[in-house]
Fold each of these.
Amino acid sequence: MTKVLPTAQLTAEAYPKVKRNPDFKILDADDLKFFQTFLDNDELIHSSIAEETASFNQDWMKKYRGQSNLILLPKSTEKVSQILKYCNENKLAVVPQGGNTDLVGASVPVFDEIILSLRNMNKIRDFNHVSGTFKCDAGVVMRDAHKFLHDHDHIFPLDLPSRNNCQVGGVVSTNAGGLNLLRYGSLHGNVLGLEVVLPNGEVISNINALRKDNTGYDLKQLFIGAEGTIGVITGVSILAAAKPKALNAIFIGIDSFDTVQNLFLKAKNELSEILSAFEFMDRGSIECTIEYLKDMPFPLKNQHNFYVLIETSGSMKKHDDEKLEAFLSSALETKLISEGNLAKNEEEYNALWTWRKSVPPACNSYGGMYKYDMSLELKDLYSVSEAVTKRLNAAGLIGDAPKPVVKSVGYGHVGDGNIHLNIAVREFTKEIENLLEPFVYEYIASKRGSISAEHGVGFHKKGHLHYSRSDIEIRFMKDIRKHYDPNGILNPYKYV
Amino acid sequence: MTKVLPTAQLTAEAYPKVKRNPDFKILDADDLKFFQTFLDNDELIHSSIAEETASFNQDWMKKYRGQSNLILLPKSTEKVSQILKYCNENKLAVVPQGGNTDLVGASVPVFDEIILSLRNMNKIRDFNHVSGTFKCDAGVVMRDAHKFLHDHDHIFPLDLPSRNNCQVGGVVSTNAGGLNLLRYGSLHGNVLGLEVVLPNGEVISNINALRKDNTGYDLKQLFIGAEGTIGVITGVSILAAAKPKALNAIFIGIDSFDTVQNLFLKAKNELSEILSAFEFMDRGSIECTIEYLKDMPFPLKNQHNFYVLIETSGSMKKHDDEKLEAFLSSALETKLISEGNLAKNEEEYNALWTWRKSVPPACNSYGGMYKYDMSLELKDLYSVSEAVTKRLNAAGLIGDAPKPVVKSVGYGHVGDGNIHLNIAVREFTKEIENLLEPFVYEYIASKRGSISAEHGVGFHKKGHLHYSRSDIEIRFMKDIRKHYDPNGILNPYKYV
């Protein structure tokens, strides 16, 4: 299962109950001819050979695969508008696609939908270094936005492991979270304006650089996290933060999740404005990671039930170090924590982060893993992990080979109330699957949490929305979708 | 004009072109009887004597006055739901009302709309001091939310001059900005969940305390700033920030607005995470304020073209002071600024803020003022003030009595790109008015700014939306309103 498969099973075959909507037209030669009238050669890929379109049809996890033979890669908002207008009038279904790095099958076709890639819209439009407002095309790769802003003493207000591939428009369309949310807040606060092409080809452009605008409904908000179901984002205006001059980190061993919460409270009070990450990992996460990282020296002497990685970023290293040292010594003195390791330089800072960032690949290294991304009120955050472990243990599934489950572990962003649950397995079995689902979703629903904290809905979680949303909300979401896209041409078979 | 008038002119008389919508039913005895079946005595005021309903019918500025003789003050979400369901079915128009402190005539009836006051829904529902999530009824007065959170070492993420009267639900409904936006961001980022009663009585409740939730469209966002046109907010969940332990301020004299911008950049870089306000005032603002505050010693030796008030808030006073002192001395040494005064204690801190907070009453002290609230890209922020002054000067209207205009001044929140333009007058004249409008709005439109940065739309700016929004956006807003409230019973004659 760790093997890279050449291709995923066709989604249409893997999910035979999902049927192609017969209202959608099947692409024909006239359609193609029309697109060729205004798109250049490098703006259109037409091929019925699966290999030639594989990178567009198949998702990043190789779990879903569509059968589109037309990929359009327009270079301008006007061309996006012409494409959508035509598709809407002719009922041709369309999947908008950014960097195609999503984890829920949102950005690839299910059947023969035309793929509308934003990758050729990759220009930075404007930056004001005084206000920090940054405007760019939707297809700008996040890494490039980071690099540009870094060179101008600013930072893009979020970062993701997929930064080398994901695009700014995709990040906004999926309301991505990432590691900096605790400090810089969500995209609903940071996005200042959007340029969006509606299904009928109309362009709503409020891509201004204003921090405040109270002239009516904040229309851009609905497109943030809409996964391209009601319009295609072609331009983004976002607030960049000043680049911090000092970064630091501590790695801490803790006995209970209650103490993790108390330590978070202490950090909020004492590190306050310089606190930029507060991540936790349980014992199992680190046990897997110790095996995975083999020769890398572990930063603490003993093993603990929980580990916390705290990051600070500020404008003066000396001050940040003083605050962190005071924080660490008082936490040790009052026996709130058992031991802690404060990075002394950039190398140590990076090493501490390696222990956090290696948890997912470590869990995946035994064969494969079941993965959940959930948010809960902080007091309940770890309880879902305990409940799942208990359940798998009761069934006798966790242990040394030949038992199928190596470990069930929990880790995530304490500051955001977001836990990632990884069940590291030697093999995928129906028995494990049946124990996990719908149990996990029902558990989250009982605690009024979210079954998708940051990964979104896409194809994968469309049928699970009712665990986190009421019937009224779901009906309202369907109404909104229908209202914006009456022919339903945008990203069909997904979301709501 | 500074005199407090007993009552404003009836809006219906002042704006004869606005006609009552004949589709709306006129309240009758049966309606009243129905409301009395489930509302207690203290939840219903019915009177045709204007004095008895004046505080509900008339706005805070005494510019607008409605003629409602029924005020409903339900104590529960369920009762709000019953009220709206009945009104929707019977086409009775309704104005939702919070603290009735808005500045655009949004919260009072135009004709005989029933007033739905949230003031009896005033319970704090829940607070989690670890995550900082705060849940309350919509009718909780902002001052009480501040006090509660203050007692729990947190702060409400925004503050307003109207804090003693405005309500949390009203603040969210109008997307209020205030002085802390630079640090804590907008309500679109801070509001975690809302409980909203729709016009048909259905309750959409996602008043959770989750910081991340990517399960479909973020429905709550549309209600933030919707001014009660598509639903009535009855509950709010919001992220409270840790209470800063240290507050400090500097008052600075500057020669040009270019330098104001450069100083802001320097502050972003050097004060970065502790910067909590960056306010500017022009020479005229301070000249008026010096006259107004009379005996209060001015914090600087000389007069300047611009003044800046910088506030910091952080978790360690010693560190903040060091950063501020370093910032001030390097700004003086490099001659970026002419002089500055750093508060040495709380009294001095408060005194410095008095100079900023007294600008509006100072401008109003000569007789009255025309007031605009706009946002622009930072580079253009002050230009609107210069353009207006030039125009009034060219017409020979500014000067000593008997000239009607005392001064035209600009001040505001540099960090938010928000300028308040006050034209201090001895009397209101048609000539001034015709010089100001539509000139000011057209100027803002030409720079792609917002004609309402934080005050909203209401009755006052309904006709002006096209200066900041495109035809497509306005049509979309109308569609959304119609979609949520097909009978148009909520807050009619306003917004869009």
Amino acid sequence: MMHILVLVLDLGGTFVFAISGAMVAVKYRLDAFGVLVLSFAAGNAGGITRDLLIGAIPPAAIEDWRYVVVSALAGTITFLWYPVTRRYSRDVLWLDAVGLAFFAVAGAEKALVHGIHPMMAALLGMLTGIGGGMLRDVLVSGIPTVLRTDLYALAALAGAGVVVGGHLLQVAPTMAAVAGGCVCLALRFMAIRRGWHLPSARSGHGAAPDNHDDGNGR
Amino acid sequence: MMHILVLVLDLGGTFVFAISGAMVAVKYRLDAFGVLVLSFAAGNAGGITRDLLIGAIPPAAIEDWRYVVVSALAGTITFLWYPVTRRYSRDVLWLDAVGLAFFAVAGAEKALVHGIHPMMAALLGMLTGIGGGMLRDVLVSGIPTVLRTDLYALAALAGAGVVVGGHLLQVAPTMAAVAGGCVCLALRFMAIRRGWHLPSARSGHGAAPDNHDDGNGR
Amino acid sequence: MMHILVLVLDLGGTFVFAISGAMVAVKYRLDAFGVLVLSFAAGNAGGITRDLLIGAIPPAAIEDWRYVVVSALAGTITFLWYPVTRRYSRDVLWLDAVGLAFFAVAGAEKALVHGIHPMMAALLGMLTGIGGGMLRDVLVSGIPTVLRTDLYALAALAGAGVVVGGHLLQVAPTMAAVAGGCVCLALRFMAIRRGWHLPSARSGHGAAPDNHDDGNGR
């Protein structure tokens, strides 16, 4: 049961994040194959890293061919209809929030199943959510937008935290997953709509602007 | 037998890729030690990642000291005779294609031996081939050229795919390895000579050029 | 006993490197949460990579919640009092050398305990020392300063090498650790004070300067 829950959330998140990877790849003029590679990286790096860290080896995305197929499908769709996909990039932003919620919840759930300490399980849920986006951005040599985008990592952590909290309070996993997903989505939605964000430090000196930040995924 | 085959191909590929890593390191003015580190990274990141993902832990490049020695040798040669190495950089390009073929074949073979699903074994062969070049470029903060260079990743996948096909058809591993290597080489050679390449998407907007792409390895 | 030695050195190194990660994050204007993420990455990437490579899975930094707490503490302090921290950045440089010594020694020790070949154990000690700084710099898209900073990686390797040498000569681990730490510190101190550094290759062509190098940690 929990296994199916994790699988469905994982594949859903993979699809959405693979689209975001493909869009960045097209923007940076990678060829058709590079687009597929970046789709896979963005869609699966978070889950693969989580699986390596909790000792679920080989990782699900390597053992189960469906992850590749889903990633390739998302990459192909984006590649073939990029101008169309682009026009809906605002909607992709919402989709991305849904993917983030899926991954955060699935990541925390799987870590708990593997007997990881609750606090670390919540952090692994967050990592599952932001890992793919981080690799995507590092590969095109930008600072990961997930480290700067409003409440992005925090929303993932909050969602994962709810799952872990539910586990500690012995709530049914499906309910905790739904609640965690909603918290993550709600935070991202408020951040996108209302511009909620966290403070930066008073850095006490001039800016160190990063010319590579291209706001992908924002 | 298969173990020796993988070892020879792996060490050969490591040597060639370590040279490519060292050349990039020299170009970016890393010091002698940084050159050795980048040699090791470029020569072994693909194989190490493959081993982590298939559960062959510790990875061969950590368990077996020969990988480090081969990498250090390649790095030292490149460092000491950089102007010479540079003059032959066209030949290094061909060597690099040979290394790619070695790695793609060895990677697929090893994944099969570890009982990975055939489709994933082919992809792991590709990853073994392109992983080192990707880390090399990310460390000097460029977009990985392997994601843009003509047919690079695709040639690796094709070679690995032949190995996997041979496995499914129960061809002798050595023969499948030779055939796979030849396919990979042939594709890269045509790409270099004739400029074969895959299409990019119509991105529907201006370029997002990347100033860091320095065409290393091309 | 050796376990406690590794733990203390690891946590100490984590704290210091987490500060360096947080300082870079603040400089690049990440928000409060991004600062914490980069603190954790800089403080733990080296140890996590080492643990994955030697098969100590889940890695200590995932299994033991103290690593996260120490990283978060360092990140929070840096974030809240950045102008103050910044004023003492020269002292942070010395602290960083101490962290490097801690990590190099702990990394080599742990690899030996896991039965890794001595030469590879020394290299894994080095990797433990420089891994966090490398990820930190890659995430803000610079060339890792650890690959260019004077004798940085070499000092780590020397310290780790002393630990391994002590192991081979059956010296008491604590003594070998102290000696190794001193060697690493001494090399870094001389490099900082006297400008000791390794030669670069005669690259035989114009510079390929990297605009992102911001000398963090120097």
